[in-house]
Amino acid sequence: MAGIKDVAAAAGVSVATVSRVLNGHPSVSAEARARVNRAVETLGYRPNAVARSLRTDQTHTLGLVISDVLNPYFTELARSVEEEARALGYSVIIGNADERPELQDHHVRNLLDRRIDGLLVSPTDGGSPLMLDAARAGTPMVFVDRWIPGVEVPVVRADGRGAVRDLVAHLYRLGHRRLAIIAGPAATTTGSERVEAFRAALAEHGLPLPDAYTGQGDFQAESGRRVTEGFLDLAEPPEVVFAADNLMALGALDAVRARGLRVPDDIALAAFDDIPWFVHTDPPVTAIAQPTGELGRAAVRALVDRIEGRTPRSVTLPARLVVRRSCGAPPTPSPVQRSTS
Amino acid sequence: MAGIKDVAAAAGVSVATVSRVLNGHPSVSAEARARVNRAVETLGYRPNAVARSLRTDQTHTLGLVISDVLNPYFTELARSVEEEARALGYSVIIGNADERPELQDHHVRNLLDRRIDGLLVSPTDGGSPLMLDAARAGTPMVFVDRWIPGVEVPVVRADGRGAVRDLVAHLYRLGHRRLAIIAGPAATTTGSERVEAFRAALAEHGLPLPDAYTGQGDFQAESGRRVTEGFLDLAEPPEVVFAADNLMALGALDAVRARGLRVPDDIALAAFDDIPWFVHTDPPVTAIAQPTGELGRAAVRALVDRIEGRTPRSVTLPARLVVRRSCGAPPTPSPVQRSTS
DNA sequence: GGCAGGGATGTAATCGATTCCACGAGTCCA
DNA sequence: TGGACTCGTGGAATCGATTACATCCCTGCC
């Protein structure tokens, strides 16, 4: 493969001049510039990004460590992150932590070794020493969706409290009084926040959230199934199950169906995180939709701000309720926003 | 950040010795090794992968360029690719081509500039000059799922012909005679192959595939919707619509539902590419399932074989039919394999 | 006419590792 | 005893770029 020296030789100039042409440095004669460009063209020369990175200490690469690539929410997040990064001249390396802290650490270490310019993380747990050290050592870093309290790192996330309140109001209006939740891992902020928001919203209607109605899940479908079975085994099962993410909702749907019960007639179902498939399930699932694409873009902008010396800002965007049929109401016009497709 | 020189100084040895310890070179005294390891530990030293890559001309990175990250099939493929690559000591950079040739080229160029060790591609089109040049220039490369004929590159893919024949037999047995297909782009191998397999299977039953029943899609949901609307507008609409991928099936489902029609009573539906969500749609969708995870792993193994000097083999694995309710049959035991979950 | 200033260019140091080669010391065997 | 060999080690070249610095030449102004 042709290197910068070959180009210099072919153009009859020094490597310094070639480099200047390549980087748009003003101080090059039009004549030399033309000769270099011609040589680049004929040799099919492409600069070696590895060498360039070593010298400039910039890789123009961002790391993104997410909890579960198979979760459509994170897939969409990853997609929007890549798009925005590309628009700003960066590439993205994605690490899938699969909700496993040690895998998360593996990816963080690997990305750091590769000297990425900045790190976007949706932490699986409360934060490993490795990640905290990196943040403290000054690695540009931004949390998306989930975050770790007490660390000086900007956070880009959605606030679901308003939407959860809307959801509970909607359920209350439909006559439901026994509401249960499948929570996410308490170690994640999204795991605990959603339970708290739910509990607070229930309290507004004078409803309790008994322990028996608080199931512990792990954001994966299987745990949703397991917890739901537990609910159904209760002497007095809940009338509604609210899953703190989409995969657990899927597991819940399975569990209900496996008993020969029907949604919403026998039990209602709602989920946090809307995804395109919820329109097509039987029945369509009422869900809380995050502005996922906007979150990804905002996170990249914050990270690049940090990298390029500007001051990054934390961003919180509102989530919104999307009413479908899984809680019993026909999706007729109502004060609450309806599904649009 | 500490460099190898710092470690050498702290351990009282030369950088050469540090490097030898780091790379497990045998010719180092136990004593020196211990001192180096201690210094590495206390300094928290991590080798700079960029510098290492420059020197060794290996990045231990694979590029994966896929057509659409939002398609669950490719998401799962990407996941299995990353897993297998990690197991073999490689990282993966994913490029999302979004079915756009120019974006595909952008990613290929970017990955080549970064000097990835090998490239895994599921080509969006018939192959750009850039990609063909790279293959010819000796860049280790493997095609997954889709491929480009006439290029000396191993291919890892699923053969759907048997499963399509099973599907058509299944439909025939249910009494369906007017079968239509939503095809993928003719420029992709999967686009044209699936139509051919379908046509051949129909022929075995003496059934034609009229032009009016061959709709042109682009593997995205919207095109499935559009083509299906066309089918429904025909004087004699088909009894079955077979979508050549999952997203177009989703679009078809939408179109049918928008007309107030029901699947499978008014029209039957089947899809190529099974995904977890098809179990939960209304009705559950009969689909042809590829061994996606195995494809991803086989592709990585082939690519790494090529990179490490062994001879890579092309791999073709069979797809299989998964019968659910969208074609009208109750999923009772039958010679054809049933859905398992 | 001489000198300051600025533009175009080349030489060489540099980034952080790996690795070839040389060298000294120790071992073995003739 | 000495040559051949091995082992542990360090010095220095190298990978392919960027860039500080020096140099040269031209222009403009006093």
What is the compact description of this entry?
2 copies of one chain form a homodimer. Chain A has 3 domains: 4-47, 434 Repressor (Amino-terminal Domain) (Orthogonal Bundle), CATH 1.10.260.40; 60-157 and 292-317, Rossmann fold (3-Layer(aba) Sandwich), CATH 3.40.50; 159-290, Rossmann fold (3-Layer(aba) Sandwich), CATH 3.40.50.2300.
Specify the CATH class of the largest domain in chain A.
Alpha Beta
Largest interface: A-B, 44 and 43 residues
The CATH superfamily of the largest domain in chain A is identified as Response regulator
Trace the largest sheet of chain A across and list its strands.
Answer: 2-1-3-4-5-11
By CATH, the topology of the largest domain in chain A is Rossmann fold
Q: Into how many domains do the coordinates of chain A divide? A: 3
